Amino acid sequence: MTYSDLNTPLRTIMTPGPVEVDPRVLRAMSTPVVGQFDPAFTKIMNEVMEMLRHIFQTKNKWAFPVDGTSRSGMEALLCSIIEPGDKILVPIFGRFGYLLTEICERHGAEVHTMECTWGDVFDPADVIKEIKRVHPKIVALVHGETSTGRLQPLEKIGAACREMNVLFTVDGVASIGGTDLKVDEWFIDGLVGGTQKCLSVPSGMAPITYNERIEEIITARKKVERGISTAEDRKQELERDHPIIRSNYLDLSMLQDYWSSRRLNHHTEATTMLYALREGLRIVLEEGLENRFNRHKFHENALVSGLEAMGLTLFGSPSCKLPTVTCVNIPEGVDGESVRQMLLQEFGIEIASSFGPLQGKIWRIGTMGYSCRKENILFTLGALEAVLIRHGVRVHTGRALQAALDSYSLIHREPVGQ
Ligand SMILES: Cc1ncc(COP(=O)(O)O)c(C=O)c1O
């Protein structure tokens, strides 16, 4: 049997992830593989740790990627600090709050949730009130909720957690590299980012950072280091005051020994993915965090102007809109999936649908990382208008692109970057 050469279509990816990979990252991925303890490689590991600290805006010692998709980072962080019966508060304002809840429950936590309407975020005062009532060990919260396109303010919640000696862990998967996220200044104890969104690196690694408050817990749960564990070791481990972390793959006490100068063998590092992450981080730092955040806002403005000029309305409260995801209400009587399909088939553009109560009600358009470019915004607006006309929607013909062009020319010059 023979198979053809790998030949994927070139797409314009305007989803909330995965997005288009920066060509520089693709080139870095063809760099020859070296052994994971080769000094040439351990140097790259150290560089990635240093670059991550800049991007996370932290002085934390620990900042490294977990091999696996973003949820592997979330699960590594949570399973390494949750001991069975620990109370955790998860404020839910979209799909990924449910993911946090599920991870915590699977690791034996007593999870308390609070919910707000999808399309909104929490007033920090309400979360703080709930922390005072529940007295959790951990608050686990999403920063940029891609399912609803909302951005939860974190600073006040972080400060309250620190004051009450509660650990604050955050899912920054969709916000890191696209919108401001200050780990130290906002009192975040543990944070997980994503590669496949605003960093424009393929999915497959989860950069994380955590401080000494978390390190202390992890260290207390460390396995005895004997290389192999006998039945007797395992029996004793089950009886310890602070039980060992139940996952081997995601045990941060072992991962940190691999990422420290000790370089204790754990897994076989995904060398090619680390090359990709290194290049993605280098691009972010070359552009500069502030420039990059401004660039995301700049293209978001043009997209929103175009959509509104076309006569479409946006979903969700504008005061907490996530700059990297724009949610559009699907006009009454329109088959949202048919529109998405036509965009893909006729124009090679991918936009996203949503989940749960929002399925069939909104489209989500991502403006993230390398995908967040002027030509992509203009192409998407033009194509969407054409497809909507084909679906019988009475749009304000011709206005979307003009509004977007106006938005671009109002500012005259694109921010540094792209
Ligand atoms: C906010 C948020 N958190 C977590 C995840 C889970 O990431 P992954 O699918 O890479 O495991 C996603 C994925 O889209 C996300 O948008």
From TrEMBL:
Taxonomic superkingdom: Bacteria
Pfam family, one: Aminotran_5
Gene3D superfamilies xrefs: Aspartate Aminotransferase, domain 1 (3.90.1150.10), Type I PLP-dependent aspartate aminotransferase-like (Major domain) (3.40.640.10)
Keywords for this protein: Aminotransferase, Pyridoxal phosphate, Transferase
InterPro entries attached to this UniProt entry: Aminotrans_V_dom, PyrdxlP-dep_Trfase, PyrdxlP-dep_Trfase_major, PyrdxlP-dep_Trfase_small, SP_NH2Trfase/AEP_transaminase
Signal peptide interval: none
Cofactors, names only: pyridoxal 5'-phosphate
Ranges of residues in domain Aminotransferase class V: 37-353
Example GO molecular function: transaminase activity
Entry's family note: Belongs to the class-V pyridoxal-phosphate-dependent aminotransferase family.
PANTHER family: ALANINE--GLYOXYLATE AMINOTRANSFERASE, AMINOTRANSFERASE CLASS V
Designated name of the protein: Alanine--glyoxylate aminotransferase family protein
Organism: Halobacillus salinarum
